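Submission sheet (multi-component)
Chains listed below:
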Amino acid sequence: MIEGLERTPLTRDFFDRPVLDVAPDLLGRTLVRTTPDGPIELRLTEVEAYAGEIDPGSHAFRGRTPRNSVMYGPPGHAYVYFTYGMWHCLNLVCGPEGEASGVLLRAGDIQVGADLTRNRRISARNDKELAKGPARLATALDVDRALNGTDAIAHPGAPLSVLHGTPPPRDQVRNGPRTGVGGDGATHPWRFWIDGDPTVSPYRAHVPRRRAT
DNA sequence: CCTATGATGATCT
DNA sequence: GATCATCATAGGT
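Outcome: structure written.
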């Protein structure tokens, strides 16, 4: 490993590849979130791939809408959506412009700026829980829809950037079904994580909610 | 450890 | 009106 490579930003070309190549390759990378109070840095430990309009689990499955329009844009940009009335989730657009693929950032290990996250993550019982789950990750990093469409291949000090980091050995990368995805999308083993990492979120199968009476 | 359920509102049909 | 790429909490084992 070349000295200093860890803090080199990833390039646009890194994201302009098939999403199933990019997703596992994001593990171990460093996501830098620059806030007014200072930088927060997180080592990615769990992601999920969403493969554009061909993927029943993807927000783009039924075509372009106002919400998912960022997914149709250039790779390397942030797609942030609001869900369950309370939470935000952060994705990075992958593949060529117009394909609408992306990677959901599901969990990570906060290595810099943990103190800046704790007032938003009161319920975390230890630092491994600060970003253990996609909405927890977004909350810890103070990510909301104001960052939707932000270029994550930007200059240092921009709101979001992704550095080369220290990827794990390939034999430590595992994959399986995506969490919370039902229907035909549930069969695709497009969740990727670092084996044994304590910041990886527990798997939850999709559960259809019964409607209120 | 586990499972069940309420919270809460944007989005799409 | 139904669904939702979730989380925190309560209570049982």
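Remark: Residues 62, 65-67, 81-87, 209 of chain A lie near DNA strand B (CB under 10 Å from a C1').
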